[in-house]
């Protein structure tokens, strides 16, 4: 057996162990057409990721005195996973080399918070990001020299793969929403091979909801990752039933795709601001200036009602728990965080928090 095939086998075994412990795994082929038996659903329900992202915006965020409080708050929702997002930046979409800045979480702080999370009984996914200045979209990255960019990217991503291995991080993401380069299948296969040389755990890629069908290297990964920001309504609504109806055709499409790829689907991100109209554009931080916590809560409920228990669905990591003190540009009452809002009560109910 080739070394990379052996690593895939080891990763698949690790995935199975995580599922048995309430983690997130591929679980082999998705054999149902979308429904499953009651027994299958009961088993799947306990084997999906219940996660929340805690992003960083500055090098010392993960060292913040607020870190323990945030992690305890995440665990109190019934979450069993937390995702961390160290971020490098490039100045222009055509640049060939991302780099650290003062907004990049330090390695020391990342190691520290992974240890804190493990100490609280939370599993960890590390999901490194590449970003651009201001409001520019990372999906627009199209380097002028792609070979040079991928060389730099492998250096970036294997750095974090080493850190994930050293900290016994349970799962790793090899890229996030890089639609401008994610069509370079051979280059990404090389990225995945490089990561597997450094890290033995389960791997995914976080494709945007309008990108995942354009990815042709899922076979090299253990999970299909989707950032699930599908618009669900043409106008604001806080009716969960209406939102569940909107999810049905998307769910059917995803079930078929999971079967075709022989992989389970993880929502590597999903989230809604607590603003009126959040369900019309879940990817937007600035839908309106009118608070709408009921609309946010309805969206949380509809997603969990629609997907929980589907054998092919590997769970969700919500975006996001909170901004760090004094760092948030969006007022808490309008932000993605569910903390202290009706959406948090939905999580506690659905995830069985004590």
Automatic annotation (TrEMBL):
Residues 1-29 form the signal peptide. Coiled coil: none annotated. Keywords: Signal. It comes from the Bacteria. This is Uncharacterized protein.
């Amino acid at each position: 057996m080739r070394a990379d095939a052996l690593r895939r086998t080891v990763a698949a075994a690790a995935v199975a162990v995580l599922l048995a412990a309430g983690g997130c795994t591929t679980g082999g082929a998705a054999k149902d057409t979308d429904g499953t038996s009651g027994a299958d659903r009961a088993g799947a329900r306990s084997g999906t990721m219940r996660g929340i992202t805690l992003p960083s915006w500055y090098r010392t965020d993960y060292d913040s005195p607020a870190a323990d409080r945030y992690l305890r708050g995440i665990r109190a929702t019934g979450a069993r996973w937390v995702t961390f997002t160290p971020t490098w930046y490039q100045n222009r979409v055509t640049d060939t080399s991302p780099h650290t800045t003062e907004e990049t979480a330090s390695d020391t702080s990342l190691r520290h918070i992974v240890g804190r999370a493990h100490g609280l009984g939370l599993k960890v996914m590390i999901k490194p990001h590449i970003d651009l200045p201001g409001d520019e979209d990372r999906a627009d990255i199209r380097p002028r020299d792609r070979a040079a960019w991928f060389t730099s990217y492998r250096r970036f991503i294997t750095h974090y793969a080493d850190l994930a291995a050293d900290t016994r991080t349970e799962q790793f993401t090899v890229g996030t929403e890089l639609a401008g380069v994610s069509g370079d299948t051979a280059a990404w296969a090389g990225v995945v091979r490089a990561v597997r040389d450094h890290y033995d755990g389960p791997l995914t890629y976080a494709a945007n909801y309008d990108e995942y069908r354009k990815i042709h290297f899922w076979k090299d990964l253990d999970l299909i990752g989707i950032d699930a920001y599908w618009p669900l309504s043409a106008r604001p609504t806080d009716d969960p039933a209406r939102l569940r109806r909107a999810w049905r055709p998307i769910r059917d499409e995803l079930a078929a795709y999971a079967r075709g790829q022989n992989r389970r689907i993880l929502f590597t991100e999903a989230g809604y601001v607590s603003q009126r109209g959040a369900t019309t554009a879940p990817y937007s931080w600035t839908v309106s200036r009118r608070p709408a916590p009921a609309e946010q809560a309805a969206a949380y409920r509809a997603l969990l009602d629609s997907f929980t228990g589907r054998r092919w669905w590997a769970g969700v990591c919500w975006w996001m728990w909170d901004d760090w003190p004094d760092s948030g540009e969006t007022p808490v009452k309008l932000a993605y965080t569910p903390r202290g809002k009706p959406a948090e009560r939905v999580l506690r109910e659905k995830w069985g928090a004590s």
